[in-house]
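Supplementary Methods S3. Input chains for the assembly prediction are listed below.
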Amino acid sequence: MSEGDKALKVALLGCGSVGSQVVRLLTEQAGDLAARVGARVELVGVAVRRLEAQREVEVPADLLTTDAAGLVRGDFAGPVDLVIEVIGGIEPARSLILAALESGASVVTANKALLAEDGSTLFEAAEKAGRDLYYEAAVAGAIPILRPLRESLAGDTVTRVLGIVNGTTNFILDQMDTTGAGFADALEEAQELGYAEADPTADVEGFDAAAKAAILASLAFHTRVTAADVHREGISEVTAADVQSAREMGAVVKLLAICDLRDGAVSARVHPAMIPRAHPLASVRGAFNAVFVESEAAGELMFYGPGAGGAPTASAVLGDLVTVARNRLAETRGAGESSYADRAVLPMGETLTRYHVSIDVDDRPGVLAAVATAFAEQGVSIQTVRQEGREDDAHLVVVSHRATDSALAATVAHLRTMEIVRDVTSVMRVEGGDE
Amino acid sequence: MSEGDKALKVALLGCGSVGSQVVRLLTEQAGDLAARVGARVELVGVAVRRLEAQREVEVPADLLTTDAAGLVRGDFAGPVDLVIEVIGGIEPARSLILAALESGASVVTANKALLAEDGSTLFEAAEKAGRDLYYEAAVAGAIPILRPLRESLAGDTVTRVLGIVNGTTNFILDQMDTTGAGFADALEEAQELGYAEADPTADVEGFDAAAKAAILASLAFHTRVTAADVHREGISEVTAADVQSAREMGAVVKLLAICDLRDGAVSARVHPAMIPRAHPLASVRGAFNAVFVESEAAGELMFYGPGAGGAPTASAVLGDLVTVARNRLAETRGAGESSYADRAVLPMGETLTRYHVSIDVDDRPGVLAAVATAFAEQGVSIQTVRQEGREDDAHLVVVSHRATDSALAATVAHLRTMEIVRDVTSVMRVEGGDE
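Predicted structure tokens for the full assembly:
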């Protein structure tokens, strides 16, 4: 099965929950991996911060080192063919990946933060070195997204990507939808169950999702989008009333990463939005992730699975490892990056959205006309208005047609200044519908 | 963008609804394709049955020929680099693909029937010729399945694949579930709407799904499974009462393609089954397809999208074309087949299933005990029994735990012979649950 003594030398950088599962799979699947690659895959070293740390999987002591740079340089077992980076964060991950590529190794990384902040530097280095840089595990964990977007849809034009790419926030919103709980209670439960960190900021404020949105937009539209290009709003302001309001219109609130292609320009944004319950993304429950792709010829596709976790992420890393190892043996490269399109990034104000606006108003004649006029003055067309009278005041729920985000924001700002408007109690975007 | 005058010559075999969309995409996407491949992709000929036929897309007359063999041989524009086969059926498709590979061309095919009947011959020919044979469009239309199973999960072990891989039957069953209609009425509606053929046999009797099950099992388990290995039951016997019964237990009836790996052996089967409404496959509506994959490390993944249609299928064909074209330029091959596992195929009787059995019985003491004994005698454990008394008879609904299909079949056969059993009114397998 293996071709003589040929073996590919693999260095693993990082041995946390993902890294230790990578070690486990490399060991347990050694036979299958050799068959699929066409050569033995040999783990020659594991760079860790502390030699003595507690690990999910036992790693032979002679493989462990705290000298990641030395391991990449080949000080330990000679030149390394493949480097797996699962340290995360910007540095030292970036320097190590660049050193690996320069020394002629192919690289597999799960590092979404680094790719979203400075992917260009990495991809250029890979291009220059003529080596592969694969990163399936960086977007939506184990869900295969990289090859579908980069290869399967290479003859098609992707126009939109809608993703539920953060399991923590999906768990919280799902709890709020199922139990009627408020954000704080749902977050607490997520923390108790291990779905949310003690400091949940990166998840609930959308930073994690924004990094993934940047990577998804880059992949889908063959251009460069960084995390700084992504408009970002988290879910900490989402109330039980918003979730209830969504329910009343047959919708559910999700934190979406939305990447659009319009007139040759792209936009990428992360914010909570209402989507119809009949939309495939609405059925994504708990901590699961999904990426919904719209393309001109293929139509609507969805990819669903676990977005995080040691073993699922390690599965994605190993899939990449097999591909780059095969390419290495064949002395070729994979489809690689295709950032030829170099598209403009639209500011949030120019993106097209729909709004769901809840307004407390005085209950007197002419109120509805005045509110409708406020929308019309900004050129925003109203799809539905629902009025609920309550003693001496009334409550209006307005759902707009698609308009620019800036026109909608201006409308809401104007509403807040109107005498008859007591309060704009909630504003939320609506996605996944027709108009 | 294109590398000088370098162009890859493409021959298209077949120009029906998929072929004409391939022509359209090759033309409209020419610039993007050249950027993604690294060379111009030039359509040099289109083999058709009749030159004068009506086509969805206009094809330049000088590209059309009725001499498919001559086109593949290079009689028209010299040697061909890439051959796309969208004729379908066994012959002449097989001979043309073999001739293409022998002459040094790489091949992209959408031909599920041929792959399921005689994939080995094609894969061996591709191996011998050192050329690519890609077939994403042959399974679940536009849904990317090939690369996820063959590459993304190459470092993992797939244990089970559950697929809704036939849009016609899913449409019919969805109608029955939504409207309460019987099979005949739902079929008629599907025919009126163009979702079912005038002769619906290939779809409703599960032949189409069985071919796809064979391909999925081969891909997922790195072995060879042919259509003849697949146990096949269609949906023509599914009644409105079955669908109602499923609803009562919180389930929905779907035609499933099920591929299992157990103790190193595989099984593949197609039959209607009840699955819980909370299962991701239950939310696959209308004519959509989905493939649900269970693997050891990644856990549960699902791939969803349109399973048929000219443009979606053409999108899958073009994605393959870009990959094989890139490989052609790099003088390498893709991951290709990996049928190294050579696994035994379990007969249907040995596969593990659960049964939902509806029984009309005499309403007298001891009936439940007698029925329970019939299950126990075959070693089949009962999960739930629901009894509904009706005048002088009673109705029992039994759901079993997992047991071999032969033990369950023997139980049902025995029930039918029992004096107290008036009729076994329905037997259906249950999938997607825990036990």
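Chain A touches chain B through 60 residues (CB under 8 Å). The domain at 7-141+310-330 of chain A is CATH 3.40.50.720 (Rossmann fold).
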